[in-house]
Structure formats: C-alpha cells, structure tokens
Design goal:
- 29% of the residues lie in helices and 25% in strands.
- The longest helix is centred in the middle third of the chain and has 19 residues, at 313-331.
- The chain is α+β, with helices and mostly antiparallel strands and 830 residues long.
C-alpha cells in the first residue's frame, strides 16, 4: 500500500509526565501514571487481538507501525468488524444465536431482490425522488452479503446468492448511483448512507468482484464523496458526525483502491490538520463554535450539537462515536494511526456526554433529535450503538481509563434487563463484549449523580431507583428538529419536558412517541390544542435564561427556564429543584393573550392499564375513558411511577385513555400505517383562558411508595420560599439547604442576587457551600449577598471571591465566558 508521510504536527507531539485530569496513578509508563502519551500509544493499537483477532493488540503499536501494512490486511480488519472474523465457535450458544440473527436478517432483506426489474432493485424501493430508497437498497445488499460471508448462516458461500448480489450491485450502478446519475432529495444518502453500505458490501464480496466491477464501485463512491475535507455540491466543510461518516467512507474506499494518500487525508481530517482547526472532530467545540457560528460537535461539558444548535448526543453524537471507533480500529498500528493529542477528549465524551444520558439502557429522548420518531430507533437501540463503540475503544485507552470504560460497559449491559445487549449486537461486538464482561474489573454500579449540560440546555438527575431528564431551550439552542418529514408532532419537546425513567424500562419504547399526546408532554406548560404538523421546524427562543447550578459530588441541583413558547404568546418561568429523591417544581408568571394554558403534572404510558391512582388516599376509577376534575388535591400516587405532593391544595384534571396512532402520523419518511394502541394516564393543572401571572408548585417523588407520599403530604420535606417573577426558591427541612433561581435582582430570605443567577446554599456542620451560575450566559459577573454572620472563605473556584458586607458576606463571581457552568465557594463559620 502506498504511504503518505505524517505531517510535522505529529512528529512534534510532546511526551508529558503530568497526569491527565481525571486519571489516577497506575502502572503504565515509567512514571506510574496514565498520560496522554500512554493513551495515544494505546490508541495506535485499538482493538485488542482477542476481540478483533486481526488487529494488533494493545502494546504492539511501535512494532506494528514499523512493518508494512498492505491493503489486504486493512480489508481483513474491516471484514472482521463486519463478520466477527474467522474462528468463531459455532457450538457456543450466544455465537450460534448471533449467526442465526445474521442469517435471519439476510432472509428478510433478500426478499424481492430482482436485478431484472426496470423500476427498482426491490419492488418497494422504486422511487426516483426519495433518496433513502437508494440507501436502503444498498443496505439490504450489505446485509445479505454479511450473511453470505459468515460461516454457519444458511447463505454462507452460496454461489447463486453471490451472483445475485453482484447483479444487484451492477443494477444499482447502472440505474441509480454513480457519475452518470444526478443526485436527488437528501445529500446524506448519496455521500454517506449509500456509500457506507456499498463499501461494506464491496469488502465482503471483494474476491468475487473482478477488477472492472471494483473500479466501477470505487469510482461511484468517489464521485459523491471524494475527500473527507469537502462535503456536498457546494463543497462546504463537513462538521461533527458528518465529518466522521465521510471520513469513514473515504477510508474504506481508499483501502479498496490501495491509496495511502487518501488514508492520510482521512487521518488529518479528524484533526483538521490542513484547516483552521475549527472543524477538528476531536477538539472540543467550546472556542471554535463562536468563531465559526456552527456550534456542531462535542463540548467540554459533554454536550453534543449537530445541525447547528440541536442537542444530539443520542443521534448524531452516538454515530460519531461509533464510526470513530471503527476508523481508529482500521488505522491502528499503521502509518496513518491517529496521534492527535485531542484524541484524549474521547474519554470526556464517554464520561460526560453519554454516561449521564443513559438510563438503564435507554438514551434520554431529549438528546435524540428526530430519531425518536423512527420506529427502528426505539427499544434501547441507541444505547446499543454507544455500548458497541465504547467496547471498541477500550483497548486504545490503557490503564485507569480502560478500567473505567470496562466498568461502565459491564454496568450498562447488566442493568438493561429490557433488551439483552448480547442477544442483539453484531458478531464482532459480541466477541469483544464478552471479553469485557469476563474482566475482573467490577461493574460501576448504578449512576447516582446530578449532571447539567449548559451548552445544550439539558439536565439529568440520577438516583438509585430512577433517572429524570429535563429538556429546555433558549436563544442559544433550538427547540426541536423536524426535517425530512420526520418528528412532525415535536412541538413541546423542549418546553420544560420532564422524562422519568423508572424500573419500567420499556416505557419510552413500544410505540410511546406516536401514541403519547404530544400536546401534553409531562412537565410542559402549553397552550391546549394541536398545532399543524411541524415539518421543517427549528427555532430558538427569544429568552436567554435556561440552565442552573449543581452542587459538586451530590445529587443536588437547581434548574430552570424562561419559557417563551413558539407559535403563541405564552410565557412563564419554570424551575425544577432536584434535591435527591424529591424534585420541587415551581412555576410563575404564566401569561398568554389567548388560549387555555396548562401545566402537565404527568403523562404516563401505563405498564399496567389498571395501575392504581390514589387521590388524597382514595382510589380513582381505573376504567379506560375515565376523566374527572379533581378538587382539593393534596397528594397523588400512581402505582409503578411514584408520588406527587401539593403543599397548597390544587384542582387538577385526570384522564385515562387508550391512544391509537400510527408511526406515519409523526414520520412520513420511515413511519408505517399500522395502528398501535397504548394506555395512558394524564394529569394536568388548568391555568385558565388567557391567564395572567398564573403559577404552580408541587413536589415530585419518583418511585416513592404511597405511604411515603402520604407522609410527605403531611410534612413536606421541601417548602416554598418564593414563587415570584423575580425569584423561585425552596428550602429543604432536613439540612436547611436553600435553592434559588433568580430571574432578576431580588431576595429569597437570607440570600439576595444583583441579577439573573441560579444558586444553591448548603449548610453542613460548620461549613456552608455556595454554588452559583449565570444561566443567561450573558453576564460578566454575579454578586450575591448572604446574610449569615461570621463566615470566612475556606476554598473558592478561580474567579470567585467573598468579603464581609453589612450583616453578612458578599460573594462575587466572574462568570464571563463560563457558558453557564457552576462555580463553587466553601465558607466556614467562626
């Protein structure tokens, strides 16, 4: 294989002796620490031999790079990623089951394949205006080719099937794809989707193709995707997941053409070596986003944005991680090994950008974009992609990081009892994952944390018995994505939607998104009614206030948003104070010129259609079709979900219903017309028509028993301090913790702020911890007055200071350029 020398940027990479942040002393290297150097040395050998037998084991990078690596070897690596490689033990039940799945998928995909047709290779994929018909045709060919290449399948080595596949490829090149054909509809299908699938089929069928057909295939892919640094007809630079997808297309095509120069371009495209640095996939996007205006990529807080301002960890983000792990595997130990120091950031992607957004095998829907409207993406499918990617990454991050990733993977697989990862994953990932599971490193255990992502206006709250996700938007972030005729009823996904994940692991699967009432998503404040379908929709808010603050190393956080609804005059202020097992929900200033405003307390797809609803201890009817106005509600308990406490009695509305819908109602591109029906219970507070200054306050107690809920109704663990339009604040009785969201300058008992801020004040013995942020991300500083005497500073984050002032202490924090991040100060009582 022809080689291209590595640019001087890699040759000047400096070896350091200091520990990388987040690592612990170990046994790697001469200084006993895991450094960027050892990480990158492992990355050169990513893909341990036991998991992927034809890729060099960790620790062999230097020797491997010294030996020639030819095209056949790299084709074998990619072939192994697709098939699991040679030597599979077909007597092993799990291997045999995976082989059977491979064969079954091929049996389904080959149906209707007919290269003699004139209108389409498959009878259901004949459109010349819908580009996904082209991609799907190639995907079916690749699926069948995989089974043809895997020993033990009914299709393995079948010569007639091989010839049918070759004829199918020829048909697509003649009639749909290549230099002689004009692209239509979606560029992604031409440059990425079709090319990826055709590349895979080509690797699998390589020995049967012949030189002329191979040249035709590679020329067709090159026609649409010639260079990883260029994208689309206008040659704009690709960013985020699109850049890695395109790099993968070019890399496999380069292997098929024996082009070392193109592999060098792929390696450098990941770092944008030849560009400004703003489009590097591996670098955090914090600095470049403002300069470039795209915002696409990972941020240091774990946020991932694609399509400019859409939160997308569970969509494009997972695909970036997945394809990057495959690319690193392909290039490991070669002259084109990725040695960019920013590769170390992948550790942060996993720890900050994926782990907090996984809830027992489900990726929180608030960061999955329009994928929630695809039937193929429900049932924990997105989490499977994340797990497969991290399994591939483990060998490239030796020492403490490998152990941490191993602990994560073991936990993720074990805790998802809804979907058995080992029973659904591909052969190569199955082999690798079983080796991870066999490791002596113990599983991490359930995540217990409160994590906020200020760069994408999302928060996640994890306790041992539940997880909760909050979805907001602002002037910086779009409310939802609805393009390509997908996600047509996504109007309120960021209007304060609260998604509760309990032991009902299939709650957001099994047709939740087409059947849930999209005008009453849980946690949202809305104008009643269904707007028109949302095709083409994406918009930011006119409000800047969205975010909060989190007390470090606890499950304590304050979160909020100023709601200015899209498409109506509705406005309001919404807060969620996440205090361990209780979430205090506060709203004020709910105002609209017209329409009936509602705040949705709960909207739950019922695992048990007869699940008991207790209202002040009395059972409400469990019949489908029940609806009622519930007056004087002090507490509610829904079996299998948890409790709700209303310290001031309120009037609520309740509804049990079977909801019937089709996926096509929310997705014209991938949805089907088959009707599905699911049972729901909805509870909401009616603020009236054209309300002015309405509000709400309740305590949500996820997974709490009915007895515990009733106890808390008698003695609420959290009390309301303020629900004005200047400040929302609550206090926890057990320790006196004060949590406040300041919408403007104001005061909440002993705490005052000079303007917008989110603050937690926690007394603990003789110390007081203060955590604060600027959720508007516009202020250069925040000043707080804390009316507590005798306090002195123990420790403070950079930019935070305190000095005596009047009857207490004034805290000043430099929030410029912090992008909503939390700053902390520890004080001590004298």
């Amino acid at each position: 294989m022809r080689r291209s020398p590595r640019p001087s940027t890699a040759d000047t990479f400096c070896e350091g002796s200091a520990m990388t942040p987040g690592t612990t002393p170990g046994t790697n290297g001469t200084n006993g620490t895991t450094t960027r150097r050892t990480v990158l040395a492992g990355a050169a050998a990513i893909g341990a031999a036991a998991a992927l037998p034809l890729v060099l084991p960790a620790g062999s990078a230097r020797a491997a790079a010294a030996d020639p690596v030819d095209a056949a070897s790299l084709r074998t690596r990619w072939h192994t990623l697709l098939t699991g490689g040679p030597g599979l033990d077909l007597s092993d039940p799990q291997i045999a089951a995976a082989v059977a799945r491979t064969g079954k998928a091929a049996t389904t995909s080959v149906k209707g394949l007919d290269p003699t047709r004139s209108d389409g290779l498959f009878p259901d994929l004949t459109s010349t205006t819908l580009s996904n018909h082209v991609t799907t045709s190639f995907k079916r060919l690749a699926t069948v080719a995989t089974a043809w290449a895997v020993p033990g399948t009914p299709q393995y080595g079948d010569t007639a099937l091989r010839d049918l596949l070759l004829a199918g490829i020829d048909w697509m090149l003649t009639n749909r794809y290549g230099p002689g054909h004009t692209r239509f509809d979606n560029d992604w299908d031409w440059e990425i989707g079709s090319a990826l699938a055709l590349n895979d089929a080509t690797v699998l069928l390589y020995d049967a193709l012949g030189a002329e057909r191979l040249a035709r295939i590679t020329a067709a892919v090159l026609h649409y995707t010639p260079d990883p640094n260029l994208w689309r007809a206008d040659r704009q630079i690709a960013t985020g997941a699109n850049r890695v997808w395109i790099s993968t297309v070019v890399a496999v095509n380069a292997v098929l053409r024996d082009s070392g120069d193109d592999l060098a371009r792929v390696r450098d495209a990941l770092s944008d070596v030849e560009g400004s640095g703003a489009n590097s996939v591996l670098a955090y996007n914090d600095a470049s986003a403002a300069a470039e205006g795209t915002g696409e990529g990972f941020y240091s807080d774990g946020s991932f944005l694609q399509h400019y301002k859409h939160p997308y960890n569970g969509g494009y983000g997972k695909e970036l991680l997945n394809n990057l792990s495959r690319l690193l595997n392909l290039l490991a130990g070669t002259a084109w090994t990725v040695t960019d120091p920013d590769l170390d950031n992948v550790r942060g992607w996993v720890d900050e950008g994926f782990d907090p957004l996984l809830a027992r095998g489900d990726v929180m829907a608030s960061v999955c974009g329009r994928e929630i409207a695809r039937p193929s993406k429900q049932g924990h499918v997105s989490a499977q992609t994340v797990i497969e990617a991290v399994v591939r990454l483990i060998p490239g991050f030796p020492g403490e990081t490998a152990d941490r990733f191993t602990a994560l993977v073991k936990q993720w697989i074990a805790e998802d009892t809804y979907r058995d990862f080992l029973a659904v994953t591909d052969l190569a990932s199955l082999v690798a994952a079983r080796q991870v599971i066999a490791s002596p490193v113990p599983a991490r255990g359930p995540l217990v944390a409160h994590k906020q992502h200020p760069r994408m206006d999302k928060a996640a709250h994890h306790r041992p018995s539940f997880a909760l996700g909050i979805s907001a938007y602002s002037s910086r972030i779009y409310n939802y994505e609805s393009i390509q005729n997908e996600n047509l009823h996504a109007w309120h996904l960021s209007d304060g939607m609260v998604l509760l994940y309990t032991d009902d692991l299939g709650h957001y699967s099994e047709d939740y998104w087409p059947t849930v009432d999209p005008a009453r998503l849980p946690g949202t404040t809305v104008i009643a009614g269904h707007p028109a379908d949302a095709a083409g929709q994406r918009t930011t808010s006119t409000a800047d206030w969205a975010g909060g603050t989190a007390l470090p190393a606890t499950t304590l956080g304050a979160y909020g948003m100023e709601l200015r609804a899209f498409g109506s005059s509705l406005q309001g202020l919404k807060s969620w104070f996440c205090l361990d097992d209780v979430i205090a929900c506060v709203g004020s200033g709910i105002t609209a010129d017209a329409g009936t405003a509602e705040t949705v307390v709960e909207n739950r797809k019922l695992r048990d259609p007869q699940a008991a609803l207790l209202v002040n201890g009395e059972a409400a009817p469990a019949d489908t079709g029940w609806s009622d106005q519930l007056d004087g509600v002090r507490w509610l308990h829904l079996a299998g979900t948890g409790g709700y406490v209303f310290p001031e009695p309120v009037t609520l509305h309740g509804l049990r219903e079977d909801r019937t819908a089709t996926w096509r109602e929310i997705n014209l591109k991938y949805g089907t017309d088959t009707s599905v029906t699911r049972p729901y219970l909805t509870l909401w507070q009616d603020h009236g028509t054209a309300p002015s200054g309405a509000g709400y306050f309740w305590l949500q107690a996820p997974a709490a028993s009915a007895d515990r809920t009733e106890q808390w109704a008698s003695a609420p663990p959290v009390s309301l301090v303020s629900d004005s339009t200047a400040v929302h604040a609550v206090r926890r009785g057990a320790d006196g913790l004060l949590a406040a969201n300041f919408w403007a300058a104001g005061a909440a008992q002993e705490l005052a702020s000079d303007g917008p801020a989110s603050v937690l004040v926690r007394p603990e013995g003789k110390t007081v911890t203060v955590s604060l942020s600027d959720p508007t991300q516009l202020r250069s500083s925040v000043a707080l007055d804390l009316a507590l005497r005798g306090l002195t500073v123990v420790s403070a984050d950079p930019g935070v200071s305190a000095a005596p002032s009047g009857g207490g202490i004034r805290i000043t924090a430099d929030t410029a350029g912090r992008h909503g991040a939390t700053l902390n100060l520890t004080l001590k009582r004298s």
